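User: Could you write out the 3D structure of this protein bound to nickel (II) ion? I've included everything you need below.
Assistant: Certainly. Input first, then the structure.
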Amino acid sequence: MPLCGFYNSNRIREAKIVMGGVARLSFSIEKPLLKRLERLVREGRYANRSEFIRDMIRDRLVQREWKQNEEAVGTITLLYDHHKRGLTQRLTHLQHHHHHVILASTHVHLDEALCAEVIVVKGRALDIKRLADLLHQQKGVLHAALSVSSTGKELA
Ligand code: NI
C-alpha cells in the first residue's frame, strides 16, 4: 500500500545512522510553530536548527536532574553590603556549614560598600537550593541568584 510505504520509508530515514554516531531524523511541525522555531534559532545565534534542538534537549535534561534531586553543578551569586552588621560573618558561617557542596568561591569588592560573591556548588540539587535560599534570606543581601547546571554525565 502506498500509504504504508510512505510511513515505512520515513521510519527508515529516521533510524538511519550516519557517520560519527549521529542520527538524522525528520519530524512534523505546524507552520506557525516552525516560524517561531526559526526566530528562536536566529535570536539565539545558533548555527542551525539542529544546534538549537540539541541545546533545548540538554536544557530539559538539566531541568529534570534538578527536579529529581540528582547531583548537579551550579553557581550562587550574592550581592550585599558588607557594612551590614554581622552579615559577612553569617555568610561565612553558612558556607562553612555547607562546605560539602561548595567547590570554590570568589569575592569581589565592587565599591566602598558593596560586595559580589560567586560560589561554585556541586551536590544534590535540594542541598544546593537550600544553601542558596539560606544565603538569600540573610538580612542585608541585596540580590541572590542561583544558576543551575549539570555534572554533564547525562548530556553527551
Ligand atoms: Ni567585599
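Helices lie at 2-15, 31-43, 49-67, 87-97, 125-137.
User: Perfect, thank you.
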